[in-house]
Structures are given as C-alpha cells and as structure tokens.
Amino acid sequence: EAGVVQSPRYKIIEKKQPVAFWCNPISGHNTLYWYRQNLGQGPELLIRYENEEAVDDSQLPKDRFSAERLKGVDSTLKIQPAELGDSAVYLCASSLELGGTTDEQYFGPGTRLTVT
Amino acid sequence: LAKTTQPISMDSYEGQEVNITCSHNNIATNDYITWYQQFPSQGPRFIIQGYKTKVTNEVASLFIPADRKSSTLSLPRVSLSDTAVYYCLVGDIHQTNSGYALNFGKGTSLLVTP
User: Fold this and answer.
1) Could you identify which of A45, A50, A69, A104 might form a hypothetical disulfide with B46, taking C-beta atoms 3.0 to 4.6 angstroms apart as the criterion?
2) Contact across the interface for A42 and B85, Cβ inside 8 Å
C-alpha cells in the first residue's frame, strides 16, 4: 500500500515569493494534517482536516498561509509571500478515523523549504 | 490540557534496554498516551499507544502507572538503527482542537552506539 505522498521534496525560493506544497494521503484516510517542523524541534500542527472540512486551523498563520482539501482527498498548503522564517520541513500526515486526536497518524517524507 | 516533559537526550549501547520516561501531570480522564519515532529526513512513525497499565507490541512496551501522571517507553535490546528522536503525545479521543493533543514537543534524542 502506498504511503503518504508529498511533493516537492525540496524547494528553494527567494523571500516574498509564493510556494505551494502538495499532499496525497493514504487511500481511505479521512483526516489529514499539515505540520511544520523547524530544525531541532518536533512537528507543530498547522491545520487538521476531517474530509474537506478544516476542523482545527488555530495555529495556521492566516495572513500568509492557506490550505485546501478539495473533495476530501489531496491537499495543498500555500505560503504567500514567503519569509525567511518559513524555512522548515513541512510534513503531511493522514489517519483513518474522524474525530479525536489519538488515531495513528501516517506521515509523508516532508518538503524541505529554504527561503533565501 | 496535558503538557508533556521528556529528557532532551539519552545515550545507550547496543543490546541494552532503554527506558524513556514522559511526565504528564495534568493528564485528563479521556487522554491516551502515544509515542512516535522519527529518523532524520523522515516523518514521525507511530510506535505504541496506551491508556493504562502495560501495552506491548513487537517494537516496544509502554508502562503507565495507576495515577497516569507519567509513562515509560521501553525499547528492549536496542540496535544502532534505533537511534532516533522519540516523542510522547497525550491526547483526548474526543477533542477536536489540537491544544497539546498534537503537540510533539522536542522529544528525546536517543543515540545508540556500539
């Protein structure tokens, strides 16, 4: 069974440019998560979807970050414009169940973003 | 919301048993305890989850005392490939807002040497 797919794996952009990350969760998984992981830190949740509904986006910087999960499958996370401090690894994860926060999450390999 | 505290790092030799303790003094009645493992350049991977007493799978054991204010992840006979960061999470099965439920913190960096 294919795991969580993310693209691109690496991205280098100049500050003030836009960037987008794509995630394809495990087939049949209803919940999708986007995390940001800074160097030496654990993943920090940005947004959580149940199907196509964002049920928790309290930690998403809404002035420059946006996300969507059309049709409750693939998801895109966008940053516009990017800032130097956005350099990090962006992880996507999915889990089977709806509701709650203890369901086993399956993570993708992440996208390493470097903003210069 | 329950916050977790773990040691920043631990060292071990190959073949030894490693125990990583996580403190969660404010754990709530509905909270479960979950551990993840993360290798460099990879996303975290689920290891084990429990509510009380002891849980064991093919990878690790999780010990949870009666008061549930702490938990211990036990890795038997570690090998070099167990070198990774280990995260303890505490979450409410009915909670829809993340709070600390999906807070990975800094984790414990385990280094296994020959």
Assistant:
1) A104
2) yes
